[in-house]
Write a structure and sequence with these properties.
Layout (H helix, E strand, L loop, with lengths): L6 E7 L5 H11 L4 E4 L5 H12 L5 H22 L2 E5 L7 H12 L4 E4 L9 H6 L2 E3 L2 H13 L8
Parallel strand pairs: 1-2, 1-3, 3-4, 4-5
Helix pairs in contact: 1-6, 2-3
């Protein structure tokens, strides 16, 4: 029996849809040895964590700075520990933080998989060029992970 490690997958980006849950469910169904990390996805908690913990700020920029710095502790740690970083760019909002995460992961030499719709292809061309895979669906992510981890490719047998 070949022993396989547990792969750490960091799921960065858009927080308003269920794409993370779709990937997690698909990985469970495929029996993939993975664990997941992610940013805090409760929007208000993520925005307000700094002032909630360290005290209010009258200037919104310092309010945002405190939250961003606390969130960076989590994000940087989990990205640096990840085996693969998946970054989702959603349709409704511009995820500047997701672009930063993709760049940070790439600078660390982490394999990056990008997910976005066709409408974002031009805007994200540089981010896509740094990725090892560019996808449009959570199901494609699961298939990539199944191939990378187990060598499984639908329609091919050894």
């Amino acid at each position: 029996m070949i022993m396989t490690k547990t792969w750490k997958i960091y799921l960065s980006g858009e927080i308003h849809t269920s794409w993370r849950e779709e990937i997690q469910t698909g990985c469970m169904a495929a029996n993939l040895p993975v664990s997941f990390g992610a940013p805090v996805t409760h929007h208000e908690a993520s925005d307000d964590c700094g002032v909630a913990i360290m005290g209010s700020e009258s200037d919104k920029s310092w309010h945002d700075n405190k939250g961003a710095n606390l969130n960076a502790i989590r994000t940087r740690t989990l990205i640096s520990e990840a085996d693969i970083v998946v970054v989702r760019f959603g349709e409704q909002y511009k995820q500047w933080n997701a672009a930063f995460d993709a760049g940070y992961a790439s600078a660390l030499g982490k394999p990056v998989i990008i997910m976005h719709g066709a409408d974002h292809q031009h805007a994200l061309k540089e981010v896509d060029a740094a990725a090892l895979a560019v996808t449009q669906t959570p199901q494609q992510i699961v298939k990539i992970l199944d191939y990378v981890i187990h060598g499984n490719l639908e329609g091919y047998t050894s």
